[in-house]
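Homework help thread (please don't just give me the answer)

Our assignment gives two proteins as sequence + structure token strings and asks us to describe the second one. The first is just a warm-up. Here they are:
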Amino acid sequence: MVVMSDGDALLGAVDDRGIRELALNRPDKANALNAGIVRRLHALLDEIGDETRVLVVKGAGRHFCGGFDFEGVEAQSEGDLVLRFVQINELLARLRRAPYLTVAWVRGAAFGAGADIVCACAWRYGAARARFRFPGFQFGVALGTRRLAELIGAQRAREVLAGNQTLDATAAHAAGLLSEVIDEADFETRLATLDAATAGLDRAARRALLRVTAGADHDADLADLVRSVARPGIHERIARYRQATAA
């Protein structure tokens, strides 16, 4: 697909089926979410209108998204950190509430907020090398939790989150996180099948279907997130997590 926007996130042109791509484009940083890319993603979502039936969310390079970018976090105030996490939470909410079909295509790692982006999409396809981890509670941040529990069940979500488990593609599919595991060469064919299967939905029916099946309580998600990030000691918690994972 033709790229319309340059930078750390790329929005493709709409094809004749109403399908377009939104790509995270920081491959040298595993597409990790710094403040700039999150703002850019919000701006690109603003550009999407009724011409779009299906939005494919993907990552450039080997990975989908490495999660929250911690570079320079020591110099940021607690207020700055709250704002950054809130903007990510609102990105997840926008994908959940989108009036078009959202499709995550995962190759490689989808960790932290990156895994939450996958969960926010209505259809979630992964290659055999896809893998997922949700480390937020290791530094006390509640992001995307209700959606994960909605997909894989409350008890399995507790196990994954408390133990900081890594799920490979097979385990993610078995749990319900991935809709399907497919060969990378077959993604376009699978996308065409999904497009054909949903072609009978007019705009109003598509919006209604997605709205009534969205599930998560966005206001509650936001409240839980803000409370978790605003709890005193966020810098220390992040530092301990980074030290533990670097060891």
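The one we have to describe:
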Amino acid sequence: MSKPVDNKVHLVFVDTLANSNKFWKAKANDNGDLEVTWGRVGYNGQTKTRNCGSYGAALYELHTIATKKKQKGYKPSVLDTKSVEEKLVYRALELLEQLKTNTYYNYTETINEYLSLVPTPLGTKIDPFVILSRLPEINRHEQLLRELLSKVEIATASQETVKVFSLKGLSNLFWKVD
């Protein structure tokens, strides 16, 4: 039995030196439309839909473009759902811990991954050699992320309706750029 072909792709490209933090996602629809959305991580982005004639043609186009994006440095990401968002927060916390304990091999790689999870405000210039280089700033990010998680855990424990939270909803105050 062959593995089903994915009809959705979500990629991110992060380069702190170039102040680049963008996403590209696409979906092939049954009616032959290829829906593509792109923009800065944390924002809705622009969407364009093109009819490729058939579902198979839309799938082919989706994977052709995705391959070219990967060759340019884009990496696979995950789509936005509540459970995925929680996993992303936990991964962001792991990265902050690496920064705190210096148990990482490449500072820039760690920062790039962190920025692919936690969006920055549009137009904010991030200096990769300064951002999260001091313990108080790392601790502040950690506290804010833990507060975000605790709200979900409290609502779940009391069996209230859990609002889907998103890292995209973080305030611009999350990033203090000196």
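TA reply:
I won't write it for you, but here's a hint about the kind of observation we're looking for: The helical segments are 55-71, 82-101, 107-117, 135-157.
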